[in-house]
Write a structure and sequence with these properties.
Length: 277
């Protein structure tokens, strides 16, 4: 007799555990099942909940995503803080020159009786970005669209007043042409060479993408979807950028943010996903 059974105790195999989980995930019997009727059941049985810790704080599962794939290498995150960097940290990615020595950290926080995970930027050179369904844009906010970086700039009232009161402005009494419409904001492409390409925002709503038939702001980037995002100003006079089901998403530069149960973020040119089981 093997040592596994010598004491009368038989260990449950991984296959048996997996089968039990699969059985538990199946739907409970329907109201018309004979098994229920014979048992005299009067209501649907409550589903059994999978085990989860009652006392210890939750772990997180970090996935270092493979390029151009929806999969990657998963890492269990127990430590807090969990530092990601190019030179030092709990996870070192030394082949990406755009990642700082200590770039960002994952923090397990506790507030109002619950644990949750946060992402903090560690004053990195190139920033920490999160993938957003809808992003609130403030002045000088940086975003990633496709494979390029942009800065959102909001025109101020003072700048408008200077333009209106300048001598050149006072001489012109005719209505402005379409090209001379008031600029409400600007989307500025920030290039590696320092050169900037500026897109003027002249109305409260613009579509951004690669197809000029669908968008008023056209980006020449194969990683931008034909209709990538909607830029608009809401009733509270806030500028918002909403992802339009694009392939590569809308990414917002942050200093710190609560991650919830699932999220994606980017450091340098490396993308990550995180989930809290």
């Amino acid at each position: 007799m093997s040592e596994r059974q010598s004491s009368g105790t038989v260990l449950e195999s991984a296959d048996e555990v997996r089968q039990a989980i699969q059985e538990a995930q199946k739907s409970p019997p329907s109201v018309g099942d004979s098994s229920r009727e014979s048992a005299g059941a009067s209501r649907e049985p409550t589903a059994t909940q999978a085990f989860r810790p009652r006392n210890r704080p939750p772990m997180a599962v970090l996935c270092v995503r493979f390029d151009e794939e929806d999969e990657g290498q998963e890492i269990a995150v127990f430590a807090s803080p969990f530092v990601i960097g190019r030179v030092e940290g709990n996870l070192v990615i030394d082949h990406d020159s755009e990642i700082s020595s200590r770039h960002a950290e994952l923090i397990r926080a506790f507030d109002n009786g619950r644990h949750f995970w946060q992402l903090h930027d560690l004053k990195s050179t190139n920033g920490t970005f999160v993938r957003a369904a809808v992003a609130l844009l403030k002045d000088e906010q940086e975003i990633l669209l496709g494979g390029r970086r942009y800065r959102f700039e909001i025109e101020t009232a003072d700048e408008d007043a200077v333009k209106k009161n300048s001598p050149a402005t006072r001489k012109v009494q005719q209505a402005p042409s379409r090209a001379e419409q008031k600029t409400l904001a600007s989307l500025v492409e920030v290039g590696d060479t320092g050169k900037e390409k500026r897109f003027s925002i002249t109305s409260p709503e613009h579509w951004i993408g690669r197809d000029p038939r669908l968008c008023s702001i056209v980006l020449d980037d194969v990683m931008v979807s034909p209709r990538h995002a909607r830029l608009y100003r809401d009733k509270q006079n806030r500028w918002l950028l909403a992802n339009a089901k694009s392939l590569n998403g809308v990414w917002l530069r942050i200093n710190r943010i609560d991650l919830g149960n699932t999220a994606q973020f980017q450091l340098g040119e490396q993308r990550f996903s995180i989930r809290v089981p």
